[in-house]
Automatic annotation (TrEMBL), chains A, B, C:
<dbReference type="GO" id="GO:0008820">
    <property type="term" value="F:cobinamide phosphate guanylyltransferase activity"/>
</dbReference>
<dbReference type="InterPro" id="IPR027417">
    <property type="entry name" value="P-loop_NTPase"/>
</dbReference>
<keyword id="KW-0808">Transferase</keyword>
<keyword id="KW-0067">ATP-binding</keyword>
<protein>
    <recommendedName>
        <fullName>Adenosylcobinamide kinase</fullName>
        <ecNumber>2.7.1.156</ecNumber>
        <ecNumber>2.7.7.62</ecNumber>
    </recommendedName>
</protein>
<dbReference type="Pfam" id="PF02283">
    <property type="entry name" value="CobU"/>
</dbReference>
<dbReference type="GO" id="GO:0043752">
    <property type="term" value="F:adenosylcobinamide kinase activity"/>
</dbReference>
<dbReference type="GO" id="GO:0009236">
    <property type="term" value="P:cobalamin biosynthetic process"/>
</dbReference>
<dbReference type="GO" id="GO:0005524">
    <property type="term" value="F:ATP binding"/>
</dbReference>
<dbReference type="InterPro" id="IPR003203">
    <property type="entry name" value="CobU/CobP"/>
</dbReference>
<feature type="binding site">
    <location>
        <begin position="53"/>
        <end position="56"/>
    </location>
    <ligand>
        <name>GTP</name>
    </ligand>
</feature>
<keyword id="KW-0547">Nucleotide-binding</keyword>
<keyword id="KW-0342">GTP-binding</keyword>
<feature type="binding site">
    <location>
        <position position="86"/>
    </location>
    <ligand>
        <name>GTP</name>
    </ligand>
</feature>
<comment type="function">
    <text>Catalyzes ATP-dependent phosphorylation of adenosylcobinamide and addition of GMP to adenosylcobinamide phosphate.</text>
</comment>
<comment type="similarity">
    <text>Belongs to the CobU/CobP family.</text>
</comment>
<dbReference type="GO" id="GO:0005525">
    <property type="term" value="F:GTP binding"/>
</dbReference>
Amino acid sequence: MTNTDKILVLGGCRSGKSSHALNLAEGMGGRRIFVATCVPRDDEMKDRVDRHRRERDATWDTLEVPVDLAGTITAHSPSTDVILVDCLTLWLSNLLMRTDDVDCIRRRIDDLAEAVRSAPRNVILVSNEVGAGIVPENRLARHYRDLAGWTNQAVAAACDRVVWTVAGIPVTIKPAFQATAP
Amino acid sequence: MTNTDKILVLGGCRSGKSSHALNLAEGMGGRRIFVATCVPRDDEMKDRVDRHRRERDATWDTLEVPVDLAGTITAHSPSTDVILVDCLTLWLSNLLMRTDDVDCIRRRIDDLAEAVRSAPRNVILVSNEVGAGIVPENRLARHYRDLAGWTNQAVAAACDRVVWTVAGIPVTIKPAFQATAP
Amino acid sequence: MTNTDKILVLGGCRSGKSSHALNLAEGMGGRRIFVATCVPRDDEMKDRVDRHRRERDATWDTLEVPVDLAGTITAHSPSTDVILVDCLTLWLSNLLMRTDDVDCIRRRIDDLAEAVRSAPRNVILVSNEVGAGIVPENRLARHYRDLAGWTNQAVAAACDRVVWTVAGIPVTIKPAFQATAP
C-alpha cells in the first residue's frame, strides 16, 4: 500500500501544531485513532488533556500510549485510516522515566521512524521544537534536548511531509519549496 | 476602508524583527505612530528603549502604551497612516502584572486581534517567539509561554501578512508560499 | 574572485545543521578545512567533538580556532577551496570568556562578517539559534543571547545564502523564496 501520507507537524509551544494535525486528519476521512502519549500526573497536565479531548469530535477513538508507539502504529487493525500521535516529545519524556540507556532510547527512536515509514495507513505525528532557546544549565535538560532533536530528525526523514507551525500558521518545509533568484 | 495592511512580524530575540517592522512602516509613508509597550523599570530595559528610539527618525510620534493596545489602535485619529506596536510579548507581561485572571487575559487578546482586524489604517505589530526552547521549570514561565503563543496565533489570524524573522532575514509565512513537488 | 559561496547554516540544537554544512562542503570538492571553535573542557564536550570528527571523512584538515576566526578565514592559503566553521555560538562563548567589553565583541563580530564577505574562497558557517525560547532569568544568558543574535544577523548579511535547519530539513531563507497570493 503506497498511497499513504506520513506527516510530521512540528512547532514550538502553542504554535497551533495540534490543531493543524487534527485538521489534516479530519480532511482524510475514515476511521481515526488519536494516540495520546500523555499520561496525566498533575492537574495542569490533566487540563491540557481534557482541553484537547474536547477539541476532537466523536469520529475519533482515543488510545493512551505512553511508550509503545511503534507497536501501536504498525500492529493496529488495517481498517484504521489514520493514526494521529500527539506528541513525540512527551513520548520521549515517558521513555526517559523508564530508562537512561541512550542506546536503548536511540533504538526506540529508530524503531518508531521505521514503523512510520512502513505503516499501511496515514500517520500524522505532532512534536515540539525544544532546541531553539538558550542552552539549558541543567544537564538532563540538555540531554533531553539532544534526544528530542534526534527524534524529530529521524521521524522527519521517515515522513513525506513536514510542517513547521509558527503562530498558528502551517509552513510546509518538506517537500522543499523553491527559492527564487535574488 | 479596505486597503490597509495588517502585518505581524514575529521572531526570536535579536532576530531583526523591530528593524524589519520599521522598514515596512517607513515604506508606507504618511503619519506614523510608534506604540512602545515597554515601560522601563531598570537600566537594562531603559537602554533597549533608548536604542530603539535612536533608530527611528523624526517622522515618528511615540506613545508609551503598556496595556490598552486595542483602544489605541482603534481610537486613534484617522489621519494616522500607520501604527507600529513593539512588542506584544511585553504587553502581555504588563497585563500579567495587573491580573492573573486567565479569562480576562484571553478576552484582552481577542479584543486586540479584533482591533487589528477592524482598524481603518495600517497596523504593524512586533512579537517574540518564546516557545521553541526547552519547557521552563518555572510554572509562571510556562503559563506566560502559553499566553504568548495564544497572542501570536490570535494576532496572526487577524493579519493579512505574517513575517518570521531569523538572523535579520524576513521570511513571509502568510500568505503561504507554494511548495514544489518532491 | 567573485565566484565563491558564502553560506550560513543556522538552526536549533540537533536540527541537523552540522551534517547539512558538511554535505554542502563535500559537494564543493577540492581542499577542505574544518575550523572547530570548540576547545573541549569536559567529557560531554569532548564526546561531541569526537563524534563530529568521526562524521568527517579523510579529505578534511581540522584546525582548532577558539577565537581568531576572521584571521583564519582571510589569511589561509589560496589553495584551500572551502572553510567550514562550526560553530559561531561557541566562538562567541570563547570570546566572552576573554572579555566582557561589548564594544570589543561587536568589533570582532563585524570583523568576522567582513572576513566572510571578502574571503577568496567558499566559506560555510554553522550557528545556533538560541533566541526563540523564554527570556532567561540569568542576566549573562540574556546578554549572550543578544550577542548571538547580532552575530547571526551580521554573518547572515555577509552571506549569499542562509539555510535554516529544522528536524534535519534545510530550509533556504536567503535568497528569498516567493510568496504566492492568498
